[in-house]
Fold this sequence. Notes:
The protein has one helix at 7-32; strands at 43-55, 60-72, 77-79, 85-95, 103-109, 114-119, 130-137, 141-152. By secondary structure, it is of the alpha+beta class. The chain has an eight-stranded antiparallel barrel with strand order 1-2-3-4-5-6-7-8. It is globular, with a radius of gyration of 22 Å. It starts with 6 loop residues before the first helix and ends with a strand.
Amino acid sequence: xxxxxxxxxxxxxxxxxxxxxxxxxxxxxxxxxxxxxxxxxxxxxxxxxxxxxxxxxxxxxxxxxxxxxxxxxxxxxxxxxxxxxxxxxxxxxxxxxxxxxxxxxxxxxxxxxxxxxxxxxxxxxxxxxxxxxxxxxxxxxxxxxxxxxxxxx
Length: 153
């Protein structure tokens, strides 16, 4: 008997401690497995070669504009093509029922910009390349859409 505690108290306290440890271990494992991009890398470079701009009048136009974004999950931030750092507000994996791609990743920035990414392999096998788009709401311009190709760095 440890510390002079009666056996029934030690048993309950021990079980509570064990249960809390198991819960933390399960929660940590679930959290670590939430993002299917993480096993490949925590740092990604996403390139775009065009931007689609849609004005309030519903007119949309595509312009050739190249740039790279640096996605850093370890520091929970994205660095845009101009070098500005934007904190990631939240990110999560979302499964799509009936989709040949097992899941997609959604990233929301503190600027209300949103990035959707899916593995490039349509067979549902997670590849090293992820494709998607970044949607950016702008003042005066309703939105900008950048098609992205992301690779681990």
